[in-house]
Amino acid sequence: MGVIGIIGAMEEEVSCLKEKMTEVSVTRKASMDFYEGLLEGKKAVVVRSGIGKVNAAVCAQILADDFKAEAIINTGIAGSLNNDINIGDIVLSTDVLYHDMDATGFGYPKCQIPQMEEFSFPANVRMRREALLVCREVNPEIQVFEGRIASGDQFVSDKALKDEIIKNTGAFACEMEGAAIGHTAYLNHIPFLIIRAISDKADGSASMDYAEFEAKAIEHSVRLTQGLLARLG
Ligand code: ADE
């Protein structure tokens, strides 16, 4: 496999991976620093995109155009949309969509992008399968799920909004970048996988312990991303 692009929205989600890279060179574009080098012996580009769909899409397109990424992994945290999925657990994307896409006024179902055939963008099956195996090896103490991930430019912390997203999408987790990365990868014919560890229940119940949960979740997601890289190619 050629270059693997790894995107995290926040610095905490990628700093560990950057530290583990060798033969690093940094290129700045669109206000983002792209760390190019070797990770687990594989050619990789690790980058913090910033939060939200536009940052994520711009970042993924640069990985495609300037770095010729042959696969894209998005590592990070998410809110759980399923009672069985606990804080710290991992969700691997089967597919991704925008929970805030709304052209219902034109007769489209909620979440459907007008004039596009796809309702959601499918993740790469091989990357998913490998990630599932690796996750059980490197994070044996947590559960790993495969399911739909819904993205939107909203931090979901309200029970009514959470329930609405579940009703419209059937997603297992919500976050703010995965669908934009999957969409961009899809348009460029690049296989992708979204790896998200659960940091909260997306219902406003996040407590004083949120920072601790977030750190633990990031640890799980980073450990899996690193393990997956070792296995790919
Ligand atoms: N990332 C982590 N938790 C989230 C939430 N509840 N909503 C959106 N993005 C998130």
From TrEMBL:
Its EC number is 3.2.2.9. CDD domains: MTAN (cd09008). GO terms for biological process: L-methionine salvage from methylthioadenosine; L-methionine salvage from S-adenosylmethionine; nucleoside catabolic process. InterPro entries: MTA_SAH_Nsdase (IPR010049), Nucleoside_phosphorylase_d (IPR000845), Nucleoside_phosphorylase_sf (IPR035994). The keyword Hydrolase applies. One of its GO terms (molecular function) is methylthioadenosine nucleosidase activity. Residues 4-229 form the Nucleoside phosphorylase domain. It holds the Pfam family PNP_UDP_1. Keywords: Amino-acid biosynthesis, Glycosidase, Hydrolase, Methionine biosynthesis. It comes from the Bacteria. GO terms for cellular component: cytosol. Pathway: Amino-acid biosynthesis; L-methionine biosynthesis via salvage pathway; S-methyl-5-thio-alpha-D-ribose 1-phosphate from S-methyl-5'-thioadenosine (hydrolase route): step 1/2. SUPFAM superfamilies: Purine and uridine phosphorylases. NCBIfam families: MTA_SAH-Nsdase, PRK05584.1. This is adenosylhomocysteine nucleosidase. It comes from Candidatus Blautia faecigallinarum. The lineage of its organism: Bacteria, Bacillati, Bacillota, Clostridia, Lachnospirales.
